[in-house]
Amino acid sequence: MLFTRVLTKSNVQLANVLKYSSFTGRSSVRLIKSGTLSQAVRSAVTVAAENAGTITTTQTKWVGRWLLGCAGMCFGAVVLGGVTRLTESGLSMVDWRLYGERPPISRIDWEEEFEKYKKFPEFQMKNSSMTLEEFKFIWMMEYVHRMWGRAIGLFFLVPAAVFWKKGLFNSAMKKRVLAFGGLLGCQGLLGWYMVRSGLEHERFQGPSDVPRVSQYRLASHLGSAFILYSLFLWSALGHLLPAEAPQKVTKGMLQLRRYALGVKGFMFLTVISGAFVAGLDAGLVYNSFPKMADRWIPEDILAFSPTIRNFTENPTTVQFDHRIMGTTTLALFTGLWLMAMRTRNMPRRVYTAANAAAGMAWMQVGLGIATLLNYVPVPLAAMHQSGSLVLLSLSIWLTHEMKLIKLIKK
Length: 410
Description:
Layout: H1 12-19, H2 26-33, H3 39-50, H4 57-86, H5 107-117, H6 121-125, H7 132-165, H8 171-197, H9 215-240, H10 251-279, H11 310-313, H12 315-342, H13 348-373, H14 378-401, H15 403-407
Helix pairs in contact: 2-3, 4-7, 4-9, 4-14, 7-8, 8-9, 9-10, 9-14, 10-12, 10-14, 12-13, 13-14
Keywords: Heme biosynthesis, Iron, Membrane, Metal-binding, Oxidoreductase, Transmembrane, Transmembrane helix
Main location: membrane
Transmembrane segments: 66-86, 147-165, 177-195, 218-241, 261-286, 324-341, 353-376, 382-400
């Protein structure tokens, strides 16, 4: 690029800042006015901004809106998936087709679909008294969830093809788009792989077995959905809300950024632990807080052998772990907020994001406790799962606003 020809050795780090800028209006102007660039670099940025090609600010915003829409569609899919699981609807559709799936129309069609369902463990071991009308409800819940997933594919692919053809993607964005497409395809296949685990007769042989999907596959499916959502949101923010560079980078800013990244990572692990709680219906084993049946540590926390199995297969241990991780996440976000308030001269939006994330962390823990104490009602449980996505979104926004701190530290 043109600006690299005029960079001195002392400005190598500043070149990295420019690599992350699209030179589509606000980003380049903000860099030029920030005061952190040498005169030579500012001149180069100005020239590069004027010769950045035909991609306008308006076109960049359209790409950003599309990415934000994809993130919103993923958010909706996670919420729908949670409600589908909570209403025990996920195993109602016992086959999978890439296209051509449509809801039954006549009573005969519904009865044929119901007969298929009767051949599998969930009906035989749990829902043998289910009526056709009850079956219609759970079937439609799963159908809507699947169709929403396919709608995400269309919402992604059609604009991506148009934008690619019109040259609105640079080389880095093209790689991201290909990665997004691959992740979307894998997510659909992983969803069916998860459902299949609940349809396998050999997994449910004992009288005490409860037909449900594998908690490992459920955690993988939910975790990949969160990753896909995070990538869409991060890319959208880069197009619609470029991060502001501080006037001067301090040691406190660098420490805050590293701490925020760590908190975001731990929060993601807490989400995965929640997926195991959902997969094992572990929210129903101890419905008191803060103690579990008048004990801080329940007697059956390590009842399985070998011991390692307890952390993914023992509902008591899984719930206990999620409680500890949830409260630890709350403490980490509270510490993050206190640290941000003590760090001066950061971009204004960093403080706004820190305030929002800390407030959402407290709300999320409150939702989790209320869900537990009320024996996991569908509305509260769905709000708790959605809250985890909101908290993740705010964490992504916070770290996005601080991403230039590292880039210009030298």
